[in-house]
Amino acid sequence: MDRALLGIEPFEICSIRPPTENCSLTFRLTRNCYWNRCKFCPVYKLGARFQKRALEDVLADIKHARRIDDLLFDEGVVTPFYTGNVLARADALAEKIRAAKGEFLPQEDESQEYGADLDPRLAWFMQWFKDKPNLRDSFSHVASWRVSGGQTCFLGDADGLILKPDFASRVIDQIRTEFTSITRFTMYGRTKTAASVRTLKDLKAFRKAGLHRVHFGVESGSDEVLAFMDKGATSSEHIEAGIRTRDAGLSCSVYVMPGLGGRTLSQAHAKDTAAVLTKMSPDYIRLRSLEIFPRTPLEEAVKNGVFTEASEEEVVKEIRTIVEETRCSTEILSDSASNLLQVGGRLPDDRDAMLSEIDSYLLLGPRERKLFSIHARLQSFIGQYGGISYDIACLLNPYRKADRLDFHDASDDELDTLIRMVRSRLMP
Predict the structure, then answer these.
(1) Above 50 in pLDDT, residue 107?
(2) Residue ranges of the domains in the chain?
(3) DSSP labels for 11-47?
(4) Residue 306: DSSP 8-state
(5) Cα–Cα distance measured from residue 270 to residue 273, given in angstroms and rounded to the nearest whole number
(6) Coil vs helix vs strand at 155
(7) CB atoms near residue 113 (< 10 Å)
(8) CA triplet 27, 33, 37: central angle to 5 degrees?
(9) DSSP classification of residue 401
(10) Are 337 and 426 within 8 A, CB to CB?
(11) pLDDT tens column, 38-84
(12) Largest alpha-carbon pair distance within the chain?
């Protein structure tokens, strides 16, 4: 093997990114989340620490990614006429280089860092997220980006706006130099940062640097819910961030979380969220129904009786309120596996169609809703992972009839158990 290939190195990938960036090329400008207090969020609750990365390290990662991209083309793994199993061929090339470098043993499972008693549900999710990607991860990442068009780039981790615009400008300039096909750059931001740390001039500088869109986790428009969840932002800061971002010429994409108010604040959460969204007028509203994860403060709140999870019906009613009462021109997307209903469309044009779809579910009887839920959740699982995992397949065996699943003889308790199990494995 050419000695130059021995210099091929992995680079840091953003495991946590918006669904629209699943096939984007990603680079980490920061590591993890400096706030990391939100009760509902499981992402950085296992010891991850926030770090701002040095500019030279980020620029080096861009060079590493470019070398991998060049090699994938040179070796015919990706071509203008993508054929064959590209990801398998990328894996094979990465393993060939690792073997040549003497890296014969696979990297240790990162979940072992958290102890043998790691909750099975968290263990399931941890296999998809790596803080230190290896060569195979990096090759697969670049190949997936190329196969998907090679036009988008996401800059992570949790709040890129905390960095100075000049930092982002240097990074984006280098990425554009190395990857000329990229036409869109996006990042996560906190509304608190956009409203209270960054001036309008700063945000315009991000736009001038080449940033196109900021994804904000609004979650709720209710100050009571935001305070309970320790979100670290208020409804007025949400509104200011949305207005300021749009005034800077940046696309504004926000995430809201039906169910976050629990049973007690369900409709107040929905109504206040619609009111905030109306004033923010974001380009996109993305629905992320609440899931309660192990080892989060919210799970403790449930155990202690201070938070009661809303039912699926209550969550759907919240979505209905958001669709009905949000009064701005925007697009609603249901691009999360956590959502029971895949409701989406433009407001105000598609409002009636979305409400009709929601009402069709609400008109179902209790039993029909359970049957609807298990089929919808399984479909989401297959869509997210490409098939059914072994443990869920074992649970489904009693309900297999020939080449289909039949749940009509299942009891309500059995259906509830199946629904909860499948939901527990879906990434939001």
Answers:
(1) no
(2) 366-424
(3) ----SS--GGGTTSEEEESEES-S----TT--TT-SS
(4) S
(5) 5
(6) strand
(7) 12
(8) 160
(9) E
(10) yes
(11) 999 988 766 678 999 999 999 999 999 999 999 998 888 887 655 55
(12) 67
